[in-house]
């Protein structure tokens, strides 16, 4: 069969371009489509492919799964055109369905308390956690943070090189100030960085921070990353009534996609407060 020969050649040509697992999944999707349509793939049209997609959706396949399968179908038909097996691509104009972005996960108050209890007595780790939570900074913004960027009297930190190299000001709480000062006073080095590596020769390594958070995840059974605390910062401010526009300024957001995502997070956080009182 032409389809078998084409699939065999497709697998051979793409085994060095894509991961073997990905290629096998794409071939599985093509075989599923062929079985569904019950016609030679040279006679397939867009309607056949859409019908197959609808059958997947009716069987409650996740949007992400359908999208992945269609991506494989599109790549296969494109390959068939390039290799001369087909003259017309039936999948070319079929858009890949987009799944709605999941709301960023943030910590509830009791989960934040558990995290703080876990690092009790660990001065450096507590300082890192408090700065992430109080300021909403990104991982690399914390790594690049310098002591001279901290304005203690105003409780402000200048982020000179945020995303897209844009400078912004973030704020921090009195509680954060206590733990950050305790960490800085404990250090005996002349490094300009707010957080330093174990050998005190440069800034704290982002990998080190990520590994710490992986450890917290295992111990608490809560998925935790530095970005989780950034989301928590935004959600908790929303719960306290801070306008979305102010939260976005503190986060350093101006892109439409992120704005829409955090708007949904904002309304979800506000709804939690409503549900507690009603």
From TrEMBL:
This is Integrase. The keyword Cytoplasm applies. Residues 5-81 form the Core-binding (CB) domain. The keyword Isomerase does not apply. GO terms for cellular component: cytoplasm. It comes from Mesobacillus subterraneus. Residues 102-275 form the Tyr recombinase domain. PROSITE patterns: CB (PS51900), TYR_RECOMBINASE (PS51898). It is found in: Cytoplasm. One of its GO terms (molecular function) is DNA binding. Keywords: Cell cycle, Cell division, Chromosome partition, Cytoplasm, DNA integration, DNA recombination, DNA-binding. GO terms for biological process: cell division; chromosome segregation; DNA integration; DNA recombination. Its main location: cytoplasm. Coiled coil: none annotated. It comes from the Bacteria.
